[in-house]
Amino acid sequence: MPEGHSVHRIANQFEQTFVAHRVAVSSPQGRFAAGAAKLDGATMVDSKAVGKQMFLEFDNGLWLHVHLGLYGAWDFAGDIATGHSMAESRTRRAATRKAENAPDDDGEHSMASIGAPRRTRVRMAEQEKAEDDIESFPPDPVGQVRVRLLSDTAVGDLRGPTKCEVLDAAGVDLAISKLGPDPLVDTPKKGRERFVTTVRKKRTPIGLLLMDQSVVSGIGNIYRAELLFRARLDPHTPGNQVPEDVLEALYKDWTKLLKSGVELGQMMTMDGLTKAQHAKALRSRADRHWVYHREGLPCRVCGTNVVMEMAAGRKLYWCPTDQV
Fold first, then answer.
1. Which end of the chain is more exposed for a tag (fewer CB within 10 A), N or C?
2. Which helix (H) or strand (E) holds 50?
3. Residue 196 falls within a domain, yes or no?
């Protein structure tokens, strides 16, 4: 399942390539035909993510709400953002656009005159996969496309989401009100206080609370295992028994990892790597995590074999020596 960093990067893709564009909305598969008709022809005015959920706003007062779930993915094609540009903040992008649109000393818009960017294709879900450039635009829909968003320069095809619905502003507010704090949405103090206050009221094990999107937004199976190990915290500890300072540090670490994930497009959860080790970790998931997916292998710190157990239907990885 895509975790919080992936959904923020997808929202950034929409912000950069669709916002301020009139969008043709359709449902090639047919299952979202009624919803598509409500949005078709409107201009996208905003794109934002909260945890694992994304909200696209249109100028007719309606929003497209998408939760990718386990199998959902967006396929983008056309003049789209790639690489590090999907991690840039809106402030930085706005400044960059202003600079690019300013003429140089000779009155020439040098950045704009380089030529149109290549029309390419990328799939964005739990992981991002760049594909070949496209020869014609727009490309034909491939497979079971629930909804297609088509602007004059880019196309986004959604497949296999858990949720895809049209909401008004009140519906968006209601959906967001059910979600816990997101470090990239809430202010640091407000988000930290909400998280600590909620956890301290519950007897539920912290290993389950971190996966509860009403407690904190965006954390999935990988970040859950890695955050608990980095905190040297037993996943079975009831929330109300975790010291307040430990919870504050946990939320601060989540903020750090989420920002890193948005920047890199990968869940890099190991610190203290050499330049060569870091490069290796970027190429291989097996080299970028402390405990996730390492059951039966020695802990990278103490050498005890990492264990895996089922917790509320999901696999939980942890070190029985370092996390007790």
1. C
2. strand 44-50
3. yes
Query: Do 187 and 313 fall within a single domain?
Result: yes
Place of tokens 């959920």: 53
Give percent of the chain with pLDDT exceeding 70.
87
Q: Angle at the Cα of 115 (from 154 to 76), degrees rounded to 5?
A: 20
Residue ending a domain, among 123, 158, 176, is 176
Residue 293: CB partners within 8 Å, gap ≥ 6? Answer: 285, 286, 317
Q: Is 2 helix (H, G, I), strand (E, B) or coil?
A: coil
* Residue 323 covered by a domain: no
Closest CA to 58 of 66, 47, 74: 47
Active-site annotation, residues: 2-3, 52, 314
DSSP for 192-255, written as a single string: HHHHHHHHTT--SBHHHHTT-TTTSSS--HHHHHHHHHHTT--TTSBGGGS-HHHHHHHHHHHH
Q: Rounded distance, CA 46 to CA 57, Å? A: 5
For tokens 């990278």, name the residue: 300
Cβ-defined contacts of 313-318 (< 8 Å, 24+): 314/211, 314/221, 315/221, 316/207, 316/221, 316/224, 316/225, 316/235, 317/225, 317/291, 317/292, 317/293, 318/207, 318/225, 318/228, 318/229, 318/234, 318/235, 318/291
Q: How many structural domains compose the chain?
A: 2
Instruction: Indicate the pLDDT class of residue 7, thresholds 50, 70 and 90.
Output: very high
Q: Are residues 59 and 109 in the same domain?
A: yes
Residue given tokens 């948005």 in the structure block: 262
Neighbours of 122 (CB within 10 A): 18
What CATH number does the domain containing 211 carry? 1.10.8.50
pTM confidence score = 0.87
Could you report the per-residue pLDDT of 233-271, keeping only the tens digit for each?
Answer: 999 999 999 999 999 999 999 999 999 999 988 899 998
